[in-house]
Amino acid sequence: MTTNINTVSKPVDPVRRHTDALHDPQKLLIGGGVLTSLILLIYLAVTQVIVQPVLLLIGLLLGYTLFHARFGFTSAFRRLMSVGNGEAIRAHMLMLGAATVLFAPILALGLSFFGAEVAGYVAPVGVSLIVGAFIFGIGMQLGGGCASGTLYAIGGGRSVMFITLIFFIIGTTIGAAHLPFWTEEMPSMGEFSLATSTGLGYGGALVASLIIFAAVAIISKVVERKRHAPKIAPLPSASGWKRIFRGSWPLWVAAIALAVLNALTLMTRGEPWGITSAFALWGSKAAQFIGFDVASWGYWQGEAATALNSSIFADSTTILNFGVILGAFIASAAGGLFKFTKITKGNFMASVIGGLMMGYGARLAFGCNIGAYFGGIASFSLHGYIWGIVAIGGTFLALYLRPLFGLSVPKSNDSVC
């Protein structure tokens, strides 16, 4: 989640907010980001199938949206568990609701733009999922962001997230090597879809899903009132039409935009938005380069071997990831907010451990906050719901671990969460 730098605070004067925190556009950086994106787009159009440049454009919009709204998963879970603020969780429910409304007909009718076979993310429910999601929940609170948060924070110049990303890749590569043990030796009840495993069909599963999302939103509101949770402070923002380009966007706008973009991803490449499978690919290619017999791993057997032996530019998830980073970079520069940040001993160590845990956990849990939680739930998979519940449990434990690394743990009267 993603790192979400929305804050929880008392109301802030909007004039002061606009003048103190929003800077002039960093035009040179914007130009560099746009130029890099265009070069990559042309390269993909010339060397790859048409799907790849389209996915780059979708990735750019994903990164732009994530940054401008600071749409988070990591901080959303942390705020809920620490101070009872559920505003971001309700944005999640809106995002999931919009996504399921879009996914239901796409999956039911097999709708796609380029003739690809369409399938959602439906994964097994078992020990591997539970262990992986719990580890990931801890890791994202130590690493300072989830999978999407790591990418868009890098785009915004948050220096320590480069450390998180490196060890995220290492962790997911180790997880890929160990995955056959977790999937073949550990207990599992197999895949379970609300649409196809229950007899509800996609229409019934959609109704059931929307009821669940509404219930979670209502419960979060009740928890807020009982705990007298502080509100999320407004972010620095331009006004009028400039807000489209300079932010900040309301969470509800980003929630709907992300749902639409995920649906477009599904129709473009035949599967929803994902992030961490590319990390496993990058890490495995690096391991292969230095002498590891990666091709013998169970993870890279069958159709997966094609990706291992092909260019990373042929991997659709890689292209989406590049797009997210570039989109967030352009968005941060447009708001005059791109700036490398300080790395301390504490957040360095937390990023190393958090990155390893997220990477390993993502492979065991068949995805991260995007592939498992967002994509899984939108695909009507039970594993997505379980991932969210268990990752929140990992978040709760991580609240006690964060102070060991000098990381803050918000209290009810804190201004930052």
UniProtKB/TrEMBL annotation:
Keyword Transmembrane: yes
GO cellular component: plasma membrane
Keyword DNA damage in record: no
Subcellular location as annotated: Cell inner membrane
Highest taxon, organism lineage: Bacteria
Predominant subcellular localization, coarse grouping: membrane
Membrane topology: Multi-pass membrane protein
Transmembrane domains' residue ranges: 28-46, 52-73, 94-115, 160-182, 202-223, 244-264, 319-338, 350-374, 380-401
Record keywords: Cell inner membrane, Cell membrane, Membrane, Transmembrane, Transmembrane helix, Transport
Family assignment from sequence similarity: Belongs to the TsuA/YedE (TC 9.B.102) family.
Protein name: Uncharacterized protein
Organism name: Lacicoccus alkaliphilus DSM 16010
